[in-house]
Amino acid sequence: MIAYVLKTLWRHRTRTILTVSGSAVAMFVFCFVGSVQEGLHRLTTGSDADRSLIVFQENRFCPTTSRLPEDYARKIREVSGVRDVMPIQVWTNNCRASLDIIVFNGADPAQIEKSRPLKLVSGSWDQFRSQRDAAIVGRSIASRRGLKVGQQFSIGDLSVRIAGVFESTIPSEENLIYTSLAFLQYTRGLDSAGLVTQHEVKLTEDADPDRVAAAIDEKLRSGSVATKTRRKGAFQASTLSDLVDLIGFAHWLGYACVGLVLSLVATTTVMSVQDRIKEYAVLQTIGVRPLTTMRLVLTESILLCLVGGLSGTLLAMIALSLGGFAIGAEGATIAFRPTPNLAVSGSIVSIFVGIIAGIAPAVQAATVPIVKALRQP
Amino acid sequence: MALVELHSVSKSFRKGDETITPLDDVSLDIQAGEFVSLMGPSGTGKSTLLNLVSGIDRPDSGQIIVDGTDVTKLSRTQLADWRAANLGYIFQTHNLIPVLTAYENVELPTLLLKLSASQRRQRVELALEAVGLSDRAGHYPRQLSGGQEQRVGIARAIVAHPKVVVADEPTGSLDSETSQQVQVLLQRLNQELNITMLMVTHDTEVAGIATRQLVLDRGKFVDRMAGTQR
Does B193 score more than 90 pLDDT? Predict the structure, then answer.
């Protein structure tokens, strides 16, 4: 009977191809929206987000406006529950939301190597440590900008030589460019000698993040610049708050895509059943059970959805994998990544939508009065 | 005991304000191996009777017993199973599945039975051979003539070795020469394979190939003629 379904779909191949293409496009968008949401979720809820704190200048948002003394690191280390502190100078080409944001993080190369989950896929740590203007770039930005080891990369007043390309277990890291802190502090135009944008604090295993954050702000209250310390996840969510609202709204776009596939496949299946209602009556006259007739129609709609959905999902996975897409604002970035979870969701949604889209026409085909249907021309 | 028994079967339906009664308290017995033709003016209940015997329609009252099974008491699913095992249906307009080849069309009813692949293949080949279309097995309906399509339809009706084959105007859409060939084929199947047949026709010449000819008018049998064995 599956041969009958396949041959039927092939016989109406224009309709089949159009429906499959429509489903593919909709599922492509669905997966893209899903990857943005997953990226945001990872950024705000990962272990790194909960067990690290960011000390930032109070009431400041864009990295260029936060200017904390580098020396604060020493004071922060004295707070109970703090395991390590990394002063970071952040430079970004754009504080507003952008799909091609460039973010430099300047920090001590030894600390970067020790504290960041980075693995060089090309280049060397030695060169990064020894060369003043050396930079290591995340593979997403390398792929997006076509950067390779040995190349000079310039943007604005910054010009670095690429010493390595890295991958990271934290996808948003792969949209960063790391340089040495001193290089970024002394770059022309930044005028940041002795100053940093933020301090990143690693906590001891038993430390309560909120309590430590409050203790840090309290300790630095007497300093020259007041600070606001938050968990890294909360800091990033706050930094990206405008985008978070937008991404929250975008999940409706995902549902709209599912609705689009549903209406597209349901329309095609209804038309197909109505065109062939006599054929289904003939099958039942021969002895095909009503339930089997239902299954034939459902198989047709599921196949349409599945082929379209899997194609769209596969294309989205390839595009996400090769594109290195990210959206960012104020120095924080959300990476769009293909994940097994996304592929499984796309496949399950396709099957589910195929079943829902096929139910009404399947019932129609199975319950049609046979004699009345046989009288149709 | 007759193979097909109709006891006081009535069927009516509404058409606008009018109630039409195509079958009014009709009774009929058909013996195994009989070839019965049903004639009568249009709208007198011939096709309705055929549909009731086939179990694709239900009577308002009465009993229809085929080989001991009261088909009026079966559910829609049970009726489908019963038709798959016991009934062959020859349509006036062939009604072959257009996306399937002649072989696949004939194979369809065998897929509903518990048969092995080799048994299915054997039955389909025999059925196609019986209607003289072994060389057209791989052709699609659009590649066949009207007469060939009807012969495929006949092969499909007999392939599952049904107890009864019903035919609704089987020559109604064919030219006279092809109609003649189909008549010969139906007669041969009845005589050589001993298939019990119930055929609706408008054509007295076609009705003549049956061993018994019945005439329906206004919902009742008005005349019963004992056919001569040909």
Answer: no
Q: Which residues contact B140 (CB under 8 A, 6 or more apart)?
A: B98, B99, B100, B101, B102
B227 alpha-carbon distance from chain centroid? 19
Q: Which among A232, A229, A101 is positioned nearest to A175, based on CA atoms?
A: A101
**For a pLDDT cut of 90, what percent of chain B falls above it?**
64
Q: Which two tokens stand for residue A269?
A: 């299946």
Whether chain B has a CB inside 8 Å of the CB on A286: the answer is yes
Cβ proximity of A49 and A231 under 8 Å: yes
With CB atoms and an 8 Å threshold, state whether B112 touches A287. Answer: yes
Q: Tell me, yes or no, whether A211 lies in a domain.
A: yes
Compute, in degrees rounded to 10, the torsion defined by CA atoms A276, A277, A278, A280: 90
Q: Please indicate whether, in this complex, the C-beta atoms of B77 and A291 are within 8 angstroms of each other.
A: yes
Considering only A21-35, B91-105, B121-135, B173-187, which range has the smallest mean pLDDT? B173-187
pLDDT of B186 over the 80 cut: yes
Kindly tell me if the per-residue pLDDT of B165 is higher than 80: yes
Chain B closest-CA separation from residue A270 CA (Å): 19
Q: Is the pLDDT of residue B129 over 50?
A: yes
- DSSP for B70-124, please give it: EGGGS-HHHHHHHHHHHEEEE-TT----TTS-HHHHHHHHHHTSS--HHHHHHHH
Averaged pLDDT score across all residues of chain B: 89
Q: Between A186 and B138, name the one with better pLDDT.
A: B138
Question: Final residue of a domain: which of A173, A199, A225?
Answer: A225
Report pLDDT for B229: 32
Across the interface, whether the CB atoms of A278 and B95 are under 8 A apart is answered yes
CATH for B34-56+75-226, among 3.40.50.300, 1.10.260.40, 2.120.10.30, 3.40.50.720? 3.40.50.300
Contacts of A282 (CB under 8 A, 6+ apart): A374, B91, B95, B97
- Report CB contact under 8 Å: A287, B100: no
Given a contact cutoff of 8 angstroms between Cβ atoms, the answer to whether A342 and A317 are in contact is: yes
The mean per-residue pLDDT over the stretch B53-66 comes to: 94
Beta strand pairing call for A198-203 and A82-92? antiparallel
* Residues of the domain holding A202: 59-225
Q: What pLDDT is attached to residue A158?
A: 86
ipTM rounded to 2 decimals: 0.92
- Provide the pLDDT for residue B227: 38
For chain B, which residues make up each domain, given as ranges? Answer: 34-56+75-226
Locate the chain A residue with the closest alpha carbon to B86: A287
Which residues of chain A fall short of a pLDDT of 50?
A: none
What is the C-alpha end-to-end distance of chain B, expressed in Å?
Answer: 24
Q: Indicate yes or no: CB of A287 within 8 angstroms of CB of B160.
A: yes
CA distance A291 to B75: 13
From residue B48, give the alpha-carbon distance in Å to each of A88, B9, B198: 88, 11, 12
Q: Search chain A and give the residue with CA nearest B55.
A: A285
Chain A residues inside the 8 Å CB shell of B160: 287
